[in-house]
Amino acid sequence: MQLTPYVFFDGRCEEALAFYRKTLGAEVEMLLRVKEIPEPPPPGMLPPGSGDKVTHGRVRIGESTLLVSDGRCQGRPSFQGFALTLTFPAPAEAERVFAALSDGGKVDMPLGRTFFSPCFGTLTDRFGVSWMVYVAA
């Protein structure tokens, strides 16, 4: 069994992918747009002009896979009750990625030493996704 997060950016998927390519070295392995699916979505499911929006994508970040979509393209993404965690072997890389991900976002807990890690912090990126950046003890 494998658990893979599926993140719905509600219309900002393309922008998010460009940001994650730059900040995390994300590699888009597959991207399917609404206009490319064999059957159109039911009437009213998506706003008019959504043909170029991402209906499904698969992204590789390090050794992990993230599935992504624009969802229903309502412009109201909601990321609550979870955080994506990035684990690094050393603080230097954690610090670099933390700074890059927090650009345009909000630092919730600055990177620092904790009882369980020499370097741990949390942030919410510009898309509203919560991240935990962690260096294993």
Overall description:
Helix content is 18%, strand content 35%. It is α/β, with parallel strands linked by helices. The strands form two sheets. It has a four-stranded mixed sheet with strand order 1-4-3-2, with helices on one face. It is elongated and about 55 Å long.
Trace the largest sheet across and list its strands. 1-4-3-2
**How widely separated are the two ends?**
27 Å
Order of helices and strands: EHEEEEHEEE
Number of helices: 2
Mean pLDDT over the full residue set:
94
Q: Helix/strand/pairing class, anyone?
A: alpha/beta
The beta-strand count equals 8
Instruction: Pick out the low-confidence regions.
Output: none
How much helicity do the residues have?
Answer: 10-25%
The main sheet comes to:
4 strands, mixed
Cα-based radius of gyration, to the nearest Å: 16 Å
What is the molecular shape? elongated
β-strand amount: 35-45%
Give the arrangement of secondary structure elements.
Layout: E1 6-8, H1 13-24, E2 27-33, E3 54-61, E4 64-69, E5 84-88, H2 91-102, E6 106-112, E7 119-124, E8 130-135
Parallel strand pairs: 1-4, 5-8
Antiparallel strand pairs: 2-3, 3-4, 6-7, 7-8
List keywords for this structure.
2 helices; 18% helix; 137 residues; alpha/beta; elongated
Short synopsis of the structure:
The chain is α/β, with parallel strands linked by helices. The chain has helices at 13-24, 91-102, and strands at 6-8, 27-33, 54-61, 64-69, 84-88, 106-112, 119-124, 130-135.
